Amino acid sequence: MDGIAAYYDNLARFLDVARRIGRGGGAAQGSTHRFLASEAGAASPEQLDHLVMDAAAGAGLAQTPRVLDAGCGIGGTVFRWHERFGGTYEGLTLSREQRHRAEAEAHARGVGEACRFHLRSYHHPIPDTFHAAVAIESLAHSPEPDAALANIAGALKPGGVFVIVDDMPEGDAQPKMRAAFKSHWRCPVLLDEDSYRAAIARAGLSLVREQDLTPRLRPRPLFWLKILIAAFTAARAISPTCGSRDVCDALLGGFILEALYRKNAMRYRLLVAVKPRA
Known about the structure:
This protein has one domain (2-172, 188-219, 266-274): Rossmann fold (3-Layer(aba) Sandwich). It contains 9 helices and 9 strands. The protein has helices at residues 2-20, 46-58, 76-85, 96-109, 145-154, 175-184, 193-202, 222-237, 242-262, and strands spanning 36-37, 43-44, 66-70, 88-93, 115-119, 130-136, 156-169, 206-212, 266-274. A 7-stranded mixed beta sheet has the order 5-4-3-6-7-9-8. α1 (2-20) packs across α9, α6 (175-184) packs antiparallel against α9 (242-262) and α8 (222-237) packs antiparallel against α9 (242-262). Residues 21-29 have low confidence and may be disordered.
């Protein structure tokens, strides 16, 4: 997993610089998740976290919960959950840069005791139990997402809620483009929705909600995406360092993913599962 750790270290540094000049996607809000359109039509990175929190609350989230964020990035989801629900939080990331930024933000907010971040894979044993777990756009980066899902599910208390949001392939469309996306974004295995359902059942959880969020995405027109993909493919070919190539890969993967959505070859889905009570 060292490769993905370095990849996210380099991306975190890039987004920190981009944020300072007014760019960097959702980095200013503490996350780089998909921008989803609200009912009013405007897209923002906060919309996804609100949907995920609503889904968890609707599935019976405990009051003042103890929550695990598997793939916490720079902490945006953790801080939004803490603002709404209170409770205590543990975030897992493989990136030292992401952990550093998340801990600095927690300290700045005065919530360092309630919101902790760890340099740890979600494949490693999890030494605690939780009322809820969230995995937003993170299981796709696991070499064994079934095993990661089962490991996280094993850390849930009876009645615990597990919310998963990720890009899930639609059929067998666009295999070359999908392979390019997986390579650039370091996604060894992409589970489709049926595979997630099966993995959730094997982990002993009950699937209680499914929602297709694809209609709320706002990918760029395919014409411009083709231009951007060509331009950044050329830029990557002449990039002089691993760091600059990682940044090009991240941007390229994002553009290719948008094109996959434009071609109806990918769906963005939210799944909510609950651990049965004893």
